[in-house]
């Protein structure tokens, strides 16, 4: 059973698509930094030769998932989400599980692969949910200012 987040004053609202994209851009920079550090380490371990192939790509993929899963499951927020006052939570206001994080991550990849259709879906959804929100039974909420 996941633990609930502390109660906040006021009603939590759904963030705009632009706010979500801003947080994703912020997190994208962090992911690229992780990839670069991994690449530097891999080249060093490979005696200065370039590293490529399915094993290296799999390591990058797993590190990317680990980044998002750690922050989503433990804190409910990545660093980009903290900067933009966003939080991912279950529909009843609790921390998401590792399973939900995996579903959310994989569905977000599909959303990107469909030219962002899964993200733009929130503009037409009655509850402002993206594909990865719906499939993982999670939601993004806008936290009130302190």
From TrEMBL:
| Cellular component, GO annotation | plasma membrane
Domain of life, per UniProt, equals Bacteria
Q: Does the keyword Membrane apply?
A: yes
What are the RDD domain coordinates in residue numbering?
A: 15-136
Broad class of where this protein is predominantly found: membrane
Report the Pfam families cross-referenced here. RDD
Could you list this entry's UniProt keywords, alphabetically sorted.
Answer: Cell membrane, Membrane, Transmembrane, Transmembrane helix
Task: Return the InterPro entries for the record.
Answer: Pra-immunoreactive, RDD
Q: Report the subcellular localization.
A: Cell membrane
By what name is this protein known? Uncharacterized membrane protein YckC, RDD family
For the keyword Transmembrane, the answer is yes
User: Which residue ranges does UniProt annotate as crossing the membrane?
Assistant: 21-43, 55-73, 101-124
Membrane topology type: Multi-pass membrane protein
């Amino acid at each position: 059973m996941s633990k609930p987040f502390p109660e906040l004053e006021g009603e939590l609202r759904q963030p705009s698509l632009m706010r979500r994209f801003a947080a994703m851009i912020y997190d994208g920079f962090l992911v690229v930094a992780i990839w670069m550090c991994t690449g530097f380490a891999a080249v060093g371990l490979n005696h200065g030769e370039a590293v490529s192939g399915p094993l290296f790509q799999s390591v990058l993929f797993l590190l990317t998932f680990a980044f998002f899963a750690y922050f989503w499951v433990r804190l409910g927020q990545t660093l980009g989400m903290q900067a933009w006052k966003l939080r991912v939570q279950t529909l009843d206001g609790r921390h998401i599980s590792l399973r939900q994080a995996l579903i959310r991550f994989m569905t977000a990849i599909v959303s990107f692969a469909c030219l962002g259709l899964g993200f733009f879906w929130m503009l037409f959804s009655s509850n402002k949910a993206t594909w990865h929100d719906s499939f993982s039974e999670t939601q993004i909420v806008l936290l009130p200012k302190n």
